[in-house]
Write a structure and sequence with these properties.
- This protein has about 140 residues and is mainly beta.
- The chain has one helix and eleven strands.
- The chain starts with 5 loop residues before the first strand and ends in a 28-residue tail after the last strand.
- It comes from Frondihabitans sucicola.
Length: about 140
């Protein structure tokens, strides 16, 4: 288990919590009520600030229930919270339904998943080695 320092910038902010033991995503909650018209997007504040450790990234994922029941999803899914970021964990939501949707203050709007990662040393070369796929484009590995 990794310890994540967290700061709330308002009393309305909720510390992310896991719904059940073993869940990968901790619920993020809105601090304000927001209404989204069809196809409208908005940056929704959580008033939560985190200090992700070096070697980890915080990934903001949509909530499947919110997507299925209300047509609300995270627009830039997954959103990325880098180790050096200390600002408000905002969530860009979009309403993909054909009706206005209102989300209450305190409602679960997304999930925060912590993931370990490796960085790369990008080395420019004149040629790349051959592969089975080669330079085939999107969908080139599937069969019809």
């Amino acid at each position: 288990m990794v310890s994540i320092p967290i700061k709330r910038s308002s009393e309305a902010a909720a510390i992310p919590t896991y719904a059940t033991e073993g869940d990968a995503g901790a619920d993020l909650r809105s601090v304000e009520e927001i209404a989204l018209r069809p196809l409208q997007r908005a940056l929704v504040k959580t008033n939560v600030h985190v200090a992700i450790p070096l070697g980890y990234v915080g990934l903001v994922h949509p909530r499947s229930g919110l997507a299925l029941k209300k047509g609300i999803t995270v627009l830039n899914a997954p959103g990325t919270i880098d180790a050096g970021y200390r600002g408000d964990v905002g969530v860009i939501l979009v309403n993909l339904s054909d009706q206005e949707v209102t989300l209450a203050a305190g409602e679960r709007i997304a999930q925060l998943v912590l993931q370990e990662f490796a960085t790369a040393d990008f080395v420019e070369v004149d040629e790349l080695d051959e592969s089975t796929r080669g330079v085939g484009g999107f969908g080139s590995t599937g069969t019809h």
